[in-house]
Amino acid sequence: MVEDILVSHECQHPLPKTADPRIQIAGNFAPVREQPVRQSLPVTGTVPACIRGVYVRNGANPLFEPVAGHHFFDGDGMVHAVTFNPDISVSHACRFTETERLIQERVLGRPVFPKAIGELHGHSGIARLLLFYARGLLGLVDHRHGTGVANAGLVYFNGRLLAMSEDDLPYHVRLEPNGDLHTIGRFNFNEQLRSAMIAHPKLDPVTRELFALSYDVVQRPYLKYFHFSADGTKSPDVEIPLKVPTMIHDFAITENYVVVPDQQVVFKLPEMIRAGHLSSTNRKRRPGLEFYQKNARNASAIVWVECPDTFCFHLWNAWEEPESNEVVVIGSCMTPPASIFNDCDEPLKSVLSEIRLNLRTRKSTRRKIISGPDQMNLEAGMVNRNKLGRKTRYVYLAIAEPWPKVCGFAKVEISTGRVEKYVYGDRRYGGEPCFVPMEANSEREDDGYILSFVHDEKTWKSELQIINAINLELEATVKLPSRVPYGFHGTFISSDELIHQV
User: Fold this and answer.
1) Is the distance from CB of 144 to CB of 186 less than 8 angstroms?
2) Which of 276, 258, 244, 291 is nearest to 126 (CA)?
3) Phi/psi at 27 (nearest 5 deg)?
4) Is a pLDDT exceeding 60 seen at residue 9?
């Protein structure tokens, strides 16, 4: 009854575009049902010999139709898996990640957990939080085992595929031999991790260590750093001093350093009540990047460098250049800040940038990598993962146009800004390009292939494309048995890596 009153009240006020489900999950952003394994899918062209294993991609896929506000990021996590078998056959499956949230809502038959972006607006947002905790006191729901949706990132570490969103612990998802997916459950690294973990941990390709952050929007410490050795042993937490909780979706590593954004986008409960949204841009706050040794034991050695106009939702890579005593950071600088979460009249721009941090002077410079008419919105992508934390020549990024759709991807030479584009075609859109290296020690950094889901909005059919990363020629296409909604981040797990799966 209380919720009915809330919904009735909210219906009297128009929702912002960033919380209107009629906009946020329209078209191919709409959810799909789970699909069991479908084997022997049709393939056009030849799948390269190095593509043996599983391509997995995460995304937001609400189980239930929203009853109030809903942002695309609020949806339940669903992983799509395309398996390339040794006999060259290909299969597809998609499954929800069975989060504690999803399990409870499925039993109740409706959404009851608050949606952080879509529902936490103004006084009705406070009322929803109070209603949720009242249900908890009555034993109707249990938030003690996590409230996250596990819909954003994926990493394969120490024999486990982990699905993540920064509001919870990661979830362990097992890849079955027949190509199916099975959620094992919430994973705390054998009781070592007791806080949420960011959705973009970094796997060092040389040491095989995993580096991560945890942020809290309610209580101090607002930010913590930690890492795991190759065998999964966790380091002590390093508490990073922040005066206010800030939006930190991603960070970067070099061979020796961790680089963490200190953003202008902050979380303030009074702002949620007054202005109607959880995050806001504090333009008086100086944005910067802070870096410290990977093996830091405390915050005493943190170096903070001011970096104007550098709200980066994602950082693609970073490396050290000892000859100039600099750390180089590659990211997409987004303006206006927080426009992904809040309505804004100014068009969103995501500019690929090189940020240089001078270790001696503690000053920064920023260079737009692409200039002139070639400038475009570039968001979601990666470098060759075997080069992460080391100097890279290329970065592969989604062309996010018309925003928020992705019309193709760009291969960008970082030093020169030279751009090569691969465009999916008329009314065909995709997502994050996933680079799969030919082999770990290839002489050419771009010796490999790009995997990308592509959806045709004319025929309403989806496929997986495999593109040669050197010449951007289409090598093979896998016709998929069901629609694949636009989603977030993915990774490729080779058959050799899967041998060691837990």
Assistant:
1) no
2) 276
3) 60, -135
4) no
Cα dihedral 382, 385, 388, 393 in deg (nearest 10): -70
Distance of CA 309 to the CA centre of its chain: 22
Side by side, which strands form the sheet with 490-494? 35-38, 90-96, 77-84, 53-60, 490-494
Alpha-carbon distance of 204 to 294, in angstroms, equals 11
Q: Which amino acid is at 94?
A: C
Please give the Cα distance from 425 to 406 (Å, whole number).
Answer: 11
What tens digit of pLDDT does each residue of 422-479 get? 999 999 999 999 999 988 778 899 999 999 999 999 999 999 999 999 999 999 999 9
Share of the chain above pLDDT 70, in %: 89
String of DSSP letters for 186-252: E--TTTT--S---S--EE-TTT--EEEEEE-SSSS-SEEEEEE-TT-PBPPPEEEP-SS-B-----E
Structure tokens at 259: 């680089």
Bond preceding residue 241 cis, omega within 30 of 0: no
DSSP code string of 256-297: SEEEEEE-SEEE-HHHHHHTS-SEEE-TTSPPEEEEEETT-S
Strand partners, 163: 154, 171
How far is Cα of residue 302 from the mean position of the Cα atoms in its chain?
26
* DSSP secondary structure of 382-412: E--GGGTTS--SEEEEEE--STTS--EEEEE
Number of separate helices (H) and strands (E) present in the chain:
6, 33
Query: Whole-angstrom Cα distance, residue 212 to residue 187?
Result: 14
pLDDT of residue 23: 86
**How far is C-alpha 359 from the geometric centre of its chain's CA atoms?**
29
HSE of 206, CA atoms in CB hemisphere, 13 A: 8
Annotate 377-393 with b (16+ C-beta within 10 A) or e (fewer). Answer: bbbbbbbbbbbbbbbbe
Summarised one tens digit per residue, pLDDT across range 208-232 is 999 999 988 777 788 899 999 999 9
Do 497 and 53 meet the contact criterion of CB atoms below 8 Å apart?
A: yes
Q: Which residue carries 């902050």 as its tokens?
A: 266
- Taking 3-state DSSP, the helix, strand and coil percentages for the chain, each rounded to the nearest 5, stand at 15, 35, 50
Residue with tokens 């390709």: 205
